Amino acid sequence: LVFSSFYQAKEKFKKELKIEGFLYSDLSVLASDIPYFPPEEEEENLEDGIHLVVCVHGLDGNSADLRLVKTFIELGLPGGKLDFLMSERNQTDTFADFDTMTDRLLDEIIQHIQLYNLSISRISFIGHSLGNVIIRSVLTRPRFRYYLNKLHTFLSLSGPHLGTLYNNSTLVSTGLWLMQKLKKSGSLLQLTFRDNADLRKCFLYQLSQKTGLQYFKNVVLVASPQDRYVPFHSARIEMCKTALKDRHTGPIYAEMINNLLQPLIGVKDCTLIRHNVFHALPNTANTLIGRAAHIAVLDSELFLEKFFLVAGLNYFK
């Protein structure tokens, strides 16, 4: 009787959501069937090399921001020969321009590999917010060219890949404008396409023209329509209705999307996956302005455990 009531309530809830997809409880097979704490762990054989996972925080963040992401991957894949680099080189100044932050992250990765004399078999990146743009910029640098054939998964959590154009929150747009003025932030200027009068000479447009994403086996874009800080369409790298109607900037926006996605289409070994996330959020000011959903991908244990067990762990196997 209890199960029947639960099933009926679940089906009613799915109809109210009006979205196609599966609920966590519908799935019979999860991404990992390994217990969190296996009884015995064999000594790791590192002859085949390790899987380096680089975690990069966002604006005004720090190296601890992605600690739960790291924890759930380690719990789900014990003995996975994973080595995590929790990037901290930019945490004292995320308001610098992207070129400066790219140099810092690239130096940090190379120094980490050399310091611990790591034999690398794979490299994956996990970024939050602005950190995803820094990651993409690192991929274009000549010094990173040696590692391109080792790239495995790019997990983008609320990444502003198309900047913050067409943000439907006036409050957030105004706040970012004020912050850019007060901090004299190069990165915020670049995210809003105000670093050059010619949009095709702006940092984000030029970055879209450079290679990078097609070297990954998995490009995973996680986005939430509840997030007002990073536009939903920017995190998913897709067109929006406002851009379609905009005859001035819209075509340039479409070019950027094509620049980013076209190389992926021609590569058989590269898979693009988009995940839409709907968080259960309390009625607070943070929820109202969209900040709660923006950081829920980092600090919601409910979301992270479900995400990695259902799908996320597959991308790091």
TrEMBL record:
Question: Which residues does the UniProt record annotate as the domain DUF676?
Answer: 48-241
> Cross-referenced PANTHER family, in alphabetical order?
LIPASE ROG1-RELATED-RELATED, PROTEIN FAM135B
One Pfam family cited in the UniProt record for this chain: DUF676
Q: Per its record, how is this protein called by name?
A: Family with sequence similarity 135 member B
**InterPro entries in the cross-refs:** AB_hydrolase_fold, DUF676_lipase-like, Lipase-like
- Top-level taxon of the source organism: Eukaryota
Q: Which family does it belong to?
A: Belongs to the FAM135 family.
